[in-house]
Each structure stands twice: as structure tokens, then as C-alpha cells.
User: What shape does this take?
Amino acid sequence: MSKVIEQIEQTMQEMKSLAQIASQREGHFITSKVYECHLNCGRVIFREKLLKNGKDGSATIIVPFTKDNRILVVVEPRVFTRKTVGVGFPAGYIEEGEEAVMGAKRELLEETGYNAEEFIKLDEFYQDEGCSSALNRIFLALNCEKVKEQKLDRDEIVKYFECTLDEVLELERRGYIEGANSKLAIMKVKEYWKGR
Amino acid sequence: MSKVIEQIEQTMQEMKSLAQIASQREGHFITSKVYECHLNCGRVIFREKLLKNGKDGSATIIVPFTKDNRILVVVEPRVFTRKTVGVGFPAGYIEEGEEAVMGAKRELLEETGYNAEEFIKLDEFYQDEGCSSALNRIFLALNCEKVKEQKLDRDEIVKYFECTLDEVLELERRGYIEGANSKLAIMKVKEYWKGR
Assistant: This one.
């Protein structure tokens, strides 16, 4: 096992949930709204729309390549998964009125302190098309360089590591990368490099 | 353009939302619950978990190949997307206590009336790992045959079509297949066939 994968495993150990207690706090992040939809064929159907923080919840996923061709991966608590910790790529919600690529730039900088010379959009997809408008965009970020420190929200915990592409693929094979966003991003990066 | 893609386009026209009206009905499908998570490193974080119908919302996605090597795709209203209609594969939530493969078998039968001789699990992934436990499974369904009629819920509208793999890839390229579930399923099917 490579040194960086060992470090990632160690970090996953540290971030593991030892206990999860159902809280009395009310959640305000996730809400929903019902719509009556009139279809062209004459039928009327009702559908419930998932909102996050009152918005669609569209996100960007960034696959950052450094100048020496390493990929930045992030480790974060993913408390509702089996491992309670996940490995993936920098990602985050696009803010109101923000262009997707600016969201990608901002999230990369916040989560890792890296800046990219170029962003290339690889694909976009609906995260949960049955009940949400969240349209996520995958960006490749090229020639990334560390320019400042991480700037995380109070409740946010993110550690990042530099991996080779082979190490990223190994992390997926071993089941450390389990999220739809990161898995789709890996596929699209593979397609992109193959096509060149 | 192939005949079946023309038929799919026509069906998409029929299912299009002409109007969507915010309803006074309260949504009961989407709810959330807050958890206080105690991490190994000593930190305590709060995370809100998305529930669908009070459950995790894990789903199966089925890529059905018929005996003559056609793939069944489904067209459904996806009212919260730009097109308001989506093309994808049969899919649905796994029921309480149901094994994933049984959910796949049931959903395929309900949405299309087809039965498969064999189900092969291709992959699994978290649909929205930041705020949900939904663990979706992708199945390849082989040697499918029509055995009965569709059996849809009252509010469900699903039409299915038999396509070649090339037509499925064309549907994705043209932006008709836009959901994370279906896009990941296509990738995994491509990998599967290449590996054989």
C-alpha cells in the first residue's frame, strides 16, 4: 500500500463517528415543496421537490491536478455512510447568482487553498432527478498550486492529499470513494485523458 | 436519427410539463433528522439526514438487455429538470426488508413487464453522501423477456423503449439521459462489456 493511502486510512480513523445521537434540534437545511404539474398529454401529477437551504442544491465537483500531475483528494466525515468517512474530490454548493466555474474556483480554494490555471467542464448531471433540480457540474482543474490556507466553515472538516491517478483508482476499487459525484468525476476524467 | 429515438422524442413531447403550480399541499415524502456525531478525534459535529418516506431512500437501477440484445430505456416526467422529462433506466426504491436484487426484479417487472434470467450487480454508490444514507445499486439484467403488463402506481407515468447500445450512447450524448443514476449505469455497463 502506498504511503499516501496509509495516511488517508489514518485520517479516516481519526474522523470516524464513534457515536451518532438523534438530536432534538430541528433541521432547517432540508425542506420540500409540492408542485402540481400539468403535462402536455393532459394528465396532472403532483411532485415533491427537495430543497437545500431553500435552493436547488446544485453543486460543483472539482478534480484538481497539480503542476506535477498529482490529484488532490479530500477526506471528510460522511456520517451517514457505512464507513462514516468518505474520500472524494473537493465539491460544494453553487451560491446564489454564482456561475458554476466560479463556484468551482471558490470551493477548491476554500477546501484546499489551491488555485488552478484552467478549469475545464467535463460534464453535468442531475443528482436526484426524480425529486430535485440539483444540476451538478464536474470540472477538471489544471496546474493547481497552493496559494493560501484552507478556509473552512465552523462545522466543516476536510483534509486533502496529493495522489497519483493510479492511487485514486485504487481508492475507488477499495471502496473508499463511494459517492456518485466522485465516481462520475473519475469516469469523466478517464474518458477525457483517453480522448486526448 | 433512428426510428426509436424519434419515438422517444415524441413521448417526451407528450410528457412535457406545460405548467407547474406551487401547491398548498404539504409534502410528506421528504423529511430530515439531525444527528449529533461524536468523532474519534474528539470533535462533535451536527449533520442533517435526508429521509424519503421516513427511510434512507436506497434505490436500484436496472440496465435490462433483452434476448436479442436490446436495452430497455424508460421515459418519465422529471418535472424539476430543464426538459421536464427524462430518459433513463428502470429504477426504484428498495422496500423495507427487501434484498436489493429482489427490488431490482420487482421494479423491472412493474415498470416494463419484463423478467430477466439473470441479474448481475455492477456497482453501488451513495447518491448524496453529504446528507443521506441512500446506497444505490446498479444491476445488469440479462435475457429479459416480456411476461406481463406494466403495473404502475396511480401517479406514475413510465413508457419504455428497446434501443441498441449505440442508441443509448447517442441519447446520452444528446443530453436526454441526464441523471446521475443512469449515467453511472451506462459507464459501468461499458466497463463490464469491455472487460469481457
The radius of gyration of chain A is 18 Å.
